[in-house]
Amino acid sequence: MSHTDHASATGARAQPLSARRTIGLAGAGLSLIAVSYGLARFAYGLFMPAFRESFDLTAGQAGTIAATSYLAYCLGTVAATVATPRFGARAVAVSAGALATTGTALIALSPTSLVLTAGVTVAGSSTGLASPPLAHAIAVRVAPGYRDRVQTIVNAGTGLGVAVSGPVALLADDRWRAAWLTFAVISVAATVWVRFRVPGPAAPSSTSPRRAKDDDAPHVAFPSDARRLFAAAAVVGAATAATWTFGQELLETAGGHSPTLATIAWIVLGACGLLGAASGELVSRAGLRRAWTVSMLALCGATAVLAAVPQQATAAVGASAVFGAVYIALTGILLIWSTRVYPARPATGVGLTFLMIAVGQSAGAPLLGVVADRAGLATSFWISAGLALAAAALAPPGRIRTA
């Protein structure tokens, strides 16, 4: 069965949302991704210098703490993949918001590095729970012609969250606990929005005579084209771990910049990440294969610039901008790729793909931290650039075989 046929069968299981409710779902999904990824997870890198000073952490220890977030993300993704078809998108999405709130509050109140690790772990689990239910709700309830666009708009919430965390950090200055309490309050608001805008389980449409046959189809967990998809996702995770975890420290130490300049670069990274929402349009115009290759080469270039000239303010901010836009674009491409490999089970496809991103990041962060301790941060970034270059060869096939 072709991608279009599968998508049509999936979409026929419930009445599509109205335009107004589709916009509401997109807004709520964008906000949940913003707080779970941009605040609860990636803001750890923004505050890395403050955490290292407050808790006397080495780069290796800081990388290990980051890895707990990625491992929790893995567990959360598995839980969401299993729970979403059973309990519905709304329940799982609300759980993601609740974990983001709990994790950010724990970080804000942490008296020791052990509690900090617990908070980072809980916060990281929220990201794993967030993406599969939103992808499922969009694939099942949004009209077919708008699905890819809505998927990539929601996915761009990471950039929004990163962009918001920067000004909060600047206003808080050295009061990082106040910043994380602010993140917790924002997470509460996003969770409430999700509760009222993400649809719950819907009754099947009366115009779906083949629903039972589709549901009873044999489940293929790992179709042949999924192997390349998962490998590509894992390498993206490993190749981006250095920038997300140590980017701020690179600019402040090897680059010699002030915390203010480093935070501005972080804000630019997040703001440009919103451009990643255009990845759906890029895929429709250039195709998955070309969009992937161009984006990976851009990621390689941005990471290499950070490694080569972190002391050049214009180059560092520019490379951060490219990294933000390309990272969100790549995760959007992976999201679309996964829903094409698993068109009848979007939560499974997105869950497994984002799980592999987390596997790459959870392996990369501590290893790159050890490299940084022994050979310098720039070396870690050069390794990441090499991984991005290698990943360009893992482009999607011209014709995707589906599950």
From TrEMBL:
It holds the Pfam family MFS_1. This is YbfB/YjiJ family MFS transporter. Gene3D superfamilies: MFS general substrate transporter like domains (1.20.1250.20). Keywords: Cell membrane, Membrane, Transmembrane, Transmembrane helix. It comes from Rhodococcus parequi. It is found in: Cell membrane. It is a multi-pass membrane protein. Residues 22-403 form the Major facilitator superfamily (MFS) profile domain. The chain crosses the membrane at residues 23-44, 64-84, 91-109, 115-140, 152-172, 178-196, 229-247, 259-279, 291-309, 315-337, 349-369, 375-395.
